[in-house]
Specification:
This protein has about 290 residues and is of the alpha/beta class. The protein has a single domain, classed as D-Maltodextrin-Binding Protein, domain 2, CATH 3.40.190.290. The protein has helices at about 5-15, 20-25, 30-45, 60-75, 95-100, 125-130, 165-170, 180, 195-205, 215-225, 235-245, 270-285; strands spanning about 50, 55, 90-95, 115-120, 135-140, 150-165, 185-190, 210-215, 230-235, 250, 255-265. The strands form three sheets. Strands 3, 4, 5, 6, 9, 10 and 11 form a seven-stranded mixed β-sheet that branches. Strands 1-2 form a two-stranded antiparallel sheet. The protein has a two-stranded parallel ribbon with strand order 7-8. α1 crosses α3 (about 30-45), α1 (about 5-15) crosses α4 (about 60-75) and α2 (about 20-25) crosses α3. Pfam families: HTH_1, LysR_substrate. This is LysR family transcriptional regulator ArgP. One of its GO terms (molecular function) is DNA binding.
Length: about 290
């Protein structure tokens, strides 16, 4: 059984940004905070903090911090000792949702002091952070729930293969000839982003030869408008560019629908239940 006073000392160092601030927050001496963390590390047989400025959690420390947050949420739901200001919700989501419809879902009127720590992973791989205990919920494209978890479908995000008119003219993509698409430069968000590969497999049975890796959703669109390459982009994010003619379909009529799912633990706190309902509502108005 873990002594939660030790976990609270570790959490205070991470949340306050240092040992001295944690000591002031907990009304302890700095030495007492340090001793509690050393005791925790001795019990576990490995470090929970990286002594940097500010201190950072190790992989184990992050999982323990996440566990403590879940305990705090359950206490808040039972109207026990949890302070709303102490509640931190860690979730991992795909970049395109974060850049379009998701932020509105994070505004919870019942929990105005709730804090979010959002990490971004490709929709095909984000679930691994939840499996490792690093986050409390995950928005991704995987329908199978984790052991001890549950999942709800949210809808699909529609992607289209787009480029600037000048790019299409430069690479002679009008009329669209699938056989030459793989020779044109392709924009890819990350190593895990396979949407462009799926597009080429669908229309030409091949893979891209030349790629640019651009890990920025906004930069991805700007690069396409500038003529650096073509790529798969969510309709939600490029409506204005399509209407203005800055971006056009490289294969008219083609679209790729990516399903999105919200993963959560079956032992769900009232805070996480409220968040799940808010996410579902926002998705129902934004996604197909």
């Amino acid at each position: 059984m873990i002594d939660y006073r030790l976990l609270q000392a570790m959490a205070a160092v991470l949340e306050q940004g240092g040992f001295e601030k944690a000591a002031n927050y907990l009304h302890l001496t700095q030495s007492a905070v340090s001793q509690r963390i050393k005791q925790l590390e001795h019990l576990l047989g490995q470090p929970v903090l990286i002594r940097s400025q500010p201190p950072k959690a190790t992989s184990l420390g992050q999982r323990l911090h996440n566990h403590l947050q879940r305990v705090r949420q359950l206490e808040a739901g039972l109207e026990l000792s949890a302070n709303p200001e102490d509640l931190i919700i860690r979730i991992t989501v795909n970049a395109d949702s974060l850049d379009t419809w998701l932020p509105a879902a994070l505004v919870l009127e019942d929990y105005p002091l709730l804090r979010f720590e959002v990490s971004v992973e490709d929709q095909a791989v984000g679930l691994r952070r939840m499996k490792q205990g690093e986050v409390m919920a995950c928005l991704c494209a995987t329908p199978e729930p984790l052991n001890g978890g549950d999942v709800i479908p949210l809808g699909v995000m529609r992607y289209r293969a787009l480029a600037s008119p000048a790019f299409i003219q430069r690479y002679h993509l009008t009329p669209p000839e699938p056989a030459i698409f793989h020779q044109a430069p392709c924009l890819i968000y990350s190593r895990e982003d396979r949407l462009q590969h799926q597009f080429l497999a669908d229309v030409a049975g091949t893979e891209p030869l030349y790629t640019h890796h651009l890990p920025s959703s906004e930069g991805f669109i700007k690069a396409a408008k500038a003529g650096l390459g073509y790529g798969m982009m969510p309709e939600l994010q490029v409506a204005d560019e399509l209407q203005a003619g800055h971006l056009v379909d490289v294969m008219p009529g083609y679209s790729l629908d990516v399903p999105l799912y919200w993963h959560f633990w079956q032992m769900e706190s009232p805070v996480m239940e409220t968040l799940r309902a808010s996410v579902a509502r926002a998705a129902s108005t934004a996604l197909y």
